[in-house]
Specification:
This protein has a 3-stranded mixed sheet with strand order 1-2-3, with no helix packed on it. The protein is mostly helical. Helix 1 packs parallel to helix 4, helix 7 packs antiparallel against helix 15 and helix 9 crosses helix 13. It is globular. The relative contact order is 0.13. The chain has 16 helices and 3 strands.
Length: about 425
């Protein structure tokens, strides 16, 4: 090999090492900053949820919280794009304003404090995406590099709040464009997610881990029933997307005034609280998930949680849809599993994986989050439910800014938005 070739190889090596060092520093900075703020966010959610559990009267303040949220968003942000705005930034269509971070932080805490039926990971994605975009601007990065930092922020926030760094790293790469992953962000997202997931425990935020009571050996008969369960979960995922989107449209059509809409939505939640006499369906629904994984769930639980989440988000309250999706999946899977003669606890776990995949169109992240939450013992069941749910859920999705690049059914480009 002559001197010119050696010189060229060394130049390439130096360039790649420079890029590695650049993204290592950026991912460490993003992981630390977003991880710390997201851990503080998770700690705040835990605190307000515990306060609501001990002081049920605070639920009656939900309409007032809704009015305050409407005021904050109209005063400081205007039109709220939510997680869709973050995905639009990745597609280089819109910018994510820095003010979204403090707004979603405060508004989600208010929603959970007063009992709104919403999650936390969707809010964390908005928080992380906004902070990532702000860091990119502070570092004077160009548009392409700033979009990678946005994905780093999403990964770090997801990992800190839920404690699943593998799924968090891949989810940010996978969610924006179905069929195409932004591999340029793989290394930065991995490091950001891992760092954030290590910061969270130092602030008392441990990773979510669940146990499946019974995992039977898979045979042909069991596999067949698992396919049926997955198909039913795919239908439920489609229904959830339709209910959340159409429910929001219905709320806006029935009550056009955003102030009055927030009050009406809060009153609906209060009415359910008074009728039931408990807080089971308020907040994210983690208690329902835990009981479903123990094999206990009311037949109507997934429908009621679905409806209350649609009312909460549709009426202007803030939070995420991911944990309510897990809740719907766990309660539906528990009930359906009992009817199919499969262990309800196992089916609740499979329902969580299948619903997450069905509404996000992210099969790889769905598998990884299943392994991180439940371990690898039920791996064949997760593989089946995720694969079948991904295929049968069609082009529906939680985020209308998500682009379906490649068809789920043929090796061809479709390049369309997810259906609402």
């Amino acid at each position: 090999m002559n001197a010119s070739v050696w010189k060229e190889q060394l130049a390439h090596l130096g360039k790649h090492l420079g890029l590695f060092c650049k993204w290592l520093l950026i991912s460490v900075l993003t992981g630390c900053v977003v991880g710390w703020i997201s851990s503080l966010f998770a700690l705040g959610l835990r605190t307000v949820t515990a306060f609501r559990g001990d002081h049920g009267w605070v639920v009656f303040c939900l309409p007032l919280a809704g009015l305050l949220i409407v005021f904050l968003y109209r005063r400081f942000l205007g039109e709220d794009g939510g997680t869709n705005l973050v995905l639009s930034n990745i597609h280089a269509q819109k910018d994510v304003p820095w003010v979204m971070a403090p707004l979603i932080f405060c508004a989600t805490l208010l929603t959970h404090l007063c009992g709104g039926s919403a999650g936390r990971e969707g809010a964390a994605l908005q928080l992380g995406g906004s902070l990532g975009n702000a860091l990119g601007r502070m570092l004077k990065m160009d548009d392409r590099d700033r979009r990678v930092v946005v994905m780093c922020g999403m990964s770090a926030a997801f990992a800190a709040v839920f404690g699943t760094p593998m799924a968090a790293a891949v989810f940010a790469l996978e969610v924006a464009s179905v069929g195409v992953m932004y591999y340029a962000g793989l290394m930065p997202c991995v490091f950001s997610a891992l760092i954030a997931s290590r910061i969270a425990p130092t602030m008392g935020i441990g990773p979510e881990r669940f146990t499946i009571a019974l995992v039977p050996e898979m045979d042909l008969w069991t596999a067949g029933r698992t396919v049926v369960l997955a198909a039913l979960c795919a239908g439920t995922a489609t229904l959830l997307c339709v209910v959340l989107h159409r429910g929001g449209q219905l709320c806006r059509s029935l009550v056009n005034n955003p102030w009055l809409r927030a009050v009406c939505g809060g009153c609906v939640i209060i009415a359910v609280f008074l009728i039931r006499g408990d807080q089971d369906y308020l907040g994210a629904g983690v208690g329902l998930i835990e009981r479903a994984l123990e094999g206990q769930a009311d037949w109507y639980a997934f429908l009621l949680k679905m409806a209350l989440t649609a009312v909460t988000i549709g009426c202007g309250y803030k939070g995420g849809e991911i944990v309510p999706t897990f809740c719907v999946g766990a309660t539906f899977g528990c009930v359906a599993g009992g009817l199919l003669g499969l262990p309800p606890s196992l089916c609740a776990a499979c329902g969580m994986a299948a619903l997450f995949c069905g509404v996000t169109n992210c099969p790889i992240a769905s598998l990884l989050i299943s392994f991180e939450l439940f371990g690898y013992e039920a791996m064949p069941y997760f593989l089946i439910t995720v694969a079948v749910s991904f295929l049968l859920s069609g082009y529906y999705g939680l985020y209308h800014e998500q682009t379906i690049v490649y068809s789920k059914y043929k090796a061809m480009l479709v390049n369309r938005k997810a259906r609402e």
